[in-house]
Amino acid sequence: MEDTTDTVRWLRAFFVWNHVPWEESIISDTVRIIKEYKEFFDLSKGPVARDPKDIKYLLQDIIIIYRTLEKACSEDFQEHANPIIEKMMERFMAGLHDPEEIIDLYEMVFKNALIYGFEESLEAPYKKAGLDIRNLENWPVEKINWVPDELKEKIIPPIKDLFAGFKEKLGKENS
User: Fold this and answer.
1) Domain residues of the chain, as ranges?
2) pLDDT tens digits, one per residue of 43-83
3) Rounded to two decimals, what is the model's pTM?
4) CA-CA distance, 128 to 134, in Å (whole number)?
C-alpha cells in the first residue's frame, strides 16, 4: 500500500483467519509470496523489466521474507544473504528513491539467487509432509496455513520477539 501524504512509506496488511495462530499465517503467506515472486527472480528466465516503483516493493518484500525465514535458513545461506539484506536495509533507511539504484539492488538480489535460498529453507520441512512448496494450489484444504513443527520451532520465536518489541515501543510512546 502507498500513502500519498508520505506519512506511511509502506504497509503490508495481514488478513488472518482464526484457523491458525497469526504467526503460522505469516509463515504460510511467506510460502505463497515466494512462489509468486519466483517469476521476478528466476535465473533461467533472466531479470524482469518493471517500473522501479514496482521493483522497490518487491525488494521490501525480499527483506521481509528473509527476516521472517532467517532462522530457518542454513548458516551458509545466512552468510551469503546477510550482507545483501543489510545493504538493502541501509538504502531503504536512507531513503531509496533513485530508479537506477533500485534497479541495481534488484539485479544484486537477482544475481545472488536469494529466492532459491528462501525456497531451500522451506522445501524439506514441507516435503516431509508430502507438500510441494512450488505447487501450493494442489495442497489439501486442511494444509492451507499449515506449518511444519520444524519451522514453527525455528521461526515463530523470532517473529514473536519482533512483534513484542514493536508492542513495547508503541506502549512507551503512548504512555
Assistant:
1) 22-173
2) 999 999 889 999 999 999 999 999 999 999 999 999 999 99
3) 0.82
4) 14
